Records
---
Amino acid sequence: EDKVVQSPLSLVVHEGDTVTLNCSYEVTNFRSLLWYKQEKKAPTFLFMLTSSGIEKKSGRLSSILDKKELFSILNITATQTGDSAVYLCAFVIIIQGAQKLVFGQGTRLTINP
Amino acid sequence: ETGVTQSPTHLIKTRGQQVTLRCSSQSGHNTVSWYQQALGQGPQFIFQYYREEENGRGNFPPRFSGLQFPNYSSELNVNALELDDSALYLCASSRRMGYFTEAFFGQGTRLTVV
């Protein structure tokens, strides 16, 4: 069975710190890895990674996928209070013709001023 | 904010009752997926609808059923509600192509079963 484990489950840091969130997996035949930010209800899309070793960047956020060691990380530099949220990683797999997302349990990030 | 809308936003039901949740997909999107997110967990795939047919189902019993309409909006129906059905229900719309395109989530419906 596909398994996605995120760590840490919870993280509290001060504004300006850099954080690294981890997503390790045992998922076969996935198409892509996605990162989402969930503040209240709707997860909002951050990144999609399909290839190993290629870093994706968007402002202060960056992410990399390692298909050999079976993990992905999400880095956030110069954190701000608005970065406080639950961060979810998800794998896109095909099941019965449908594209299904398999999520980790999330990392709750709290940025204190 | 995405163009995916869900209704209602909150709902309280009694064990044994039935509930219908609704989702309007984003313009141009033809696929709707439903997810259940229990407190402190990541979303779990329930099923996906494409061209008005279910095409892919997660590990949920048959009392979870759905519909997709010609305008690509969708409904999730849950019969014989159980306490464990209390969760945030999210729908995600996407455009099916030969490859994965990002899915946009609605704000969700918070269902409480008492």
Note: Chain A touches chain B at residues 4, 6, 31-32, 34, 36, 40-45, 48, 88, 90, 92, 95-106 (CB under 8 Å).
---
Amino acid sequence: GENVEQHPSTLSVQEGDSAVIKCTYSDSASNYFPWYKQELGKRPQLIIDIRSNVGEKKDQRIAVTLNKTAKHFSLHITETQPEDSAVYFCAASKDTGTASKLTFGTGTRLQVTL
Amino acid sequence: SAVISQKPSRDICQRGTSLTIQCQVDSQVTMMFWYRQQPGQSLTLIATANQGSEATYESGFVIDKFPISRPNLTFSTLTVSNMSPEDSSIYLCSVEGQASTDTQYFGPGTRLTVL
């Protein structure tokens, strides 16, 4: 089955700096890659996603890049703010014709310091 | 996106008992999923709840331990049976997005503590 690795496990940046989180996946058939943000005690919230026919996607301060050849994708957060502090999870899935099952990475705890 | 609710939000249970968690969605969805998130860990898919048929379980999860019901397109339950302290986790349901079926949105979760 699919295996998703995520690095780093923790990341501390100063407010205003950029943060980058990287994930690799094992199944070359995976074609959908979402990123979730989970604040303490809250549900995971989808913040951005990318499909395999696209190399990059941006939404204001966040962007995701995908390298299908290398089987890795990354989350980029620019101009970080304290409210960006949370655990971020990457995930991967493939279209099986029935249900698209998400396999999650191990998570990155991002702390944005003042 | 759909509004998803779960009951209970949290519970403390005794070893050997069972707990049924409910997931309600405000619109009809084809696919519903159940995940487990152990303390400080990532999310692991338990099973896909299929309407009108048995759930599809992932490796390491069995129906006797985690029976699932899906009586209609807006509701599902997950039961954690014969609980042990190792079952202490957050249990989350998720549903597919209405615009895109491979996007998933999560319920608020049920925090279970087994003593």
Note: Chain A has a mean pLDDT of 94.
